[in-house]
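Hey, can you fold this one?
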Amino acid sequence: MACALAIFCVPSRAAHADIGNAGTTAGAFLALPPGAAAPGMAGATLALSGDLSAAALNPALLGSITGLEIALAHAELPDGSRNEWAAIGGAYGPLATRWSLSGIYAGQGTFEGRDALNQPTGSFSVSSMAAGASLAQPLGPFLSLGAGAKFVSENLGPVTGSGAAFDAGITLRAGPLGLGASARNFGGAMEYGGLRYDFPVAYGAGVSLEHAGLRLEVDANMPADYYNDVRAGIEYRWRDRVALRAGYQHELGGDPATEPLEGPSFGLGAGLRGVWLDYAYLPVVVGQTEQRLGVVLRPFAGGWRGGELGAKQAPASPHGAR
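Sure. Predicted structure:
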């Protein structure tokens, strides 16, 4: 049991860290950006007006959504695990408040168990899931506040754990410029019997610029259990139908020769009449790659008005969704 916890309940990325809190957290899958648009820009999206996948990193970004959305995403990760994410929410009804419900499943596969004498004890599966809800309140055309909560569960074969965590964020927009800040996975812990592990708490802030189809974002991220990093992303959107994306993530303090989280990323998007598709490609320095697919549906949209990270949208009406 102790071996299962030591191997699986802490982030795999912490194996390369040399900071004090490395290897002390659970629920590593919560640190990954969902969807396929933000990963194509190296995960830089804390201040960029967006959709449900962007709002998963900063719940205040729900305030920029003007209609009901359904989002789905699939990722094959370099360690052989898979990540499935789904969300529904946005603006619906007479209230200006935005909402979302989301779920994520991470499957790490099946492993062979061994006892203290290294004898096989049978196979067991490892998986994680989280279900969450978020709310955002636009305060006029420039400011938005958001908060969310999530329930997290992990199955590590003979050991199971659960806990709750919280998110909060703020965005401020002035013309083409945007500012955003968020805190994720704070205020809770995973409990496995008598053992307790913190979640991968992360704080971040970003600045964005949107002009004539060009969208730029730079974020600074400060995770509690890993190196700080800087992420920069760029997107060019043609007539709100096709999007080209690229980004770069730089770890502050990691070894560039072995750091698995540092490097470029690329992405494509295309949409028409309420359906938007995204693809992200993330090469990593250890010789493996990560690919992501995402789709966003707007059931009541007569025509698509933006991609997964959202075109520049009209400010929310104080009397409710448009």
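Residues 25 and 245 are 32 Å apart (CA to CA). Let me know if you want another pass with a different chain boundary.
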